[in-house]
């Protein structure tokens, strides 16, 4: 007579375990938040929302360009009251925007602030993780949270001094993340907020702008040890990572520095017609040519130092896990052999002007009005002189997600709470 009761008890326990397992799987695949930090590779519209009234002080607010003032911003050489810009800094500010025609038309059909023809790597990663497009933090209301937040800013650097007031540097992005976590605690309670932060994945691309500075001041970087300079950049990145870790983050995704000497604007500025050539004899080179070679040296040094830094953090910080994608090699392969990856051109920009499309003129709003745009950006590795096409970003996102990036790919970090 007790047998039916035993069966009922067994069925109840089994059902409970099954439901618990299904809930855990569902949470792992669908409810893990994505937090995005970095520069132009990851910016989904942050710079549209910088409070330009505070451009000189570097303060970042939630007011900025919107549908109401965008038309005036596009048509005037310098805005009047309201945007806080003058003729001197207006052109600089435009450098860090992509809110112009021709941008983002492949997917969105209107400019969103992404500096490509469509989606960026973070957009595809969100899709693979079954998340919605992750919005810029500065677009969120205090009580709003949809799958994560994007703090990345076009032109941002690892050092706070990089383009202060016009971009959101890495340390300020960290402060914004801390503010977001505080809002999560206030709105969801400590336990749920801590779980979101702990389970979340943090995708980061930062540091490139510090090495572009080699072009702006070549004499300085001929007298400074490359090891010391790279150490300063990597050290700043490491410090911010430790701060984010202290808030509760554990799972990180990174990219190596891309081959900056291969950017078309850099080739045009240095007079090199190939990113893989270093020119003639050193004794005949102008300072800017020295800069071109220094760029390669700095990037190689950074890409050698950064993995060691991550390995050190993993050994020192309990639970710290990471993925490191070799963007340098992957992009170089597509530039050298575009047809192997479905591209027709790896050395010319789809949108721009001048040799290789190397003038940063796409959209006609950065001083040079004349530019041309190709009918099919998917045929090009580069969309403009400095940034890649949606198709290139899509390919890289696939490799980041389920490729062989050591020590884990991003899919593994999303699907497992404790890898």
TrEMBL record:
Coiled-coil regions listed: 167-194
Signal peptide residues on this chain, from the entry's feature table: 1-23
Keyword match Metal-binding: no
Domain of life: Eukaryota
InterPro entries, A to Z: GDSL, GLIP1-5/GLL25, SGNH_hydro_sf, SGNH_plant_lipase-like
Gene3D superfamilies: SGNH hydrolase
Protein family per UniProt: Belongs to the 'GDSL' lipolytic enzyme family.
Protein name: Uncharacterized protein
